[in-house]
Amino acid sequence: MEKKCNLANLKVGQSARVTKLNISNKQIKRHLLDMGITRGVKVTVKKIAPMGDPIDIELRDYELALRKADLEQIEIEVIKK
């Protein structure tokens, strides 16, 4: 059973597939696409900073730290709880 939410809602160890980028700023959207965050890619939360921002995710065999505000705009389907 898959649950839809945004990437900022995941906890450490959870995995999901990206379904949509709801980012209105074209520069930020292009930057995220260039870093490999595309529809269908599997992401796993590796670490969350003590204050909750940034969040370290793993995708395409590398790790990436992103601001929580950007992750809130990425829709996902949870595949591992």
Query: What is the typical, i.e. mean, pLDDT?
Result: 89
C-alpha Rg (nearest Å)? 11 Å
Structural class: alpha+beta
Assembly of the depicted chains: single chain
Secondary-structure element order, N to C? EEHEEEHE
Largest sheet data: 6 strands, antiparallel
Percent helix range: 10-25%
Shape: globular
User: Poorly predicted ranges (pLDDT <50, ≥5 residues)?
Assistant: none
Helix segment count? 2
Through-space gap between termini: 10 Å
Number of strands: 6
> What spatial order of strands do you see in the largest sheet?
1-6-2-3-4-5
Beta-strand fraction estimate: 35-45%
Chain-wise SSE layout:
Elements: E1 3-6, E2 15-21, H1 26-34, E3 42-48, E4 55-59, E5 62-66, H2 68-71, E6 74-80
Antiparallel strand pairs: 1-6, 2-3, 2-6, 3-4, 4-5
Report what the structure shows.
The protein has 81 residues and is of the alpha+beta class. It contains two helices and six strands. The chain has a six-stranded antiparallel beta sheet with strand order 1-6-2-3-4-5. The radius of gyration is 11 Å and the shape is globular. The N and C termini lie close together (10 Å).
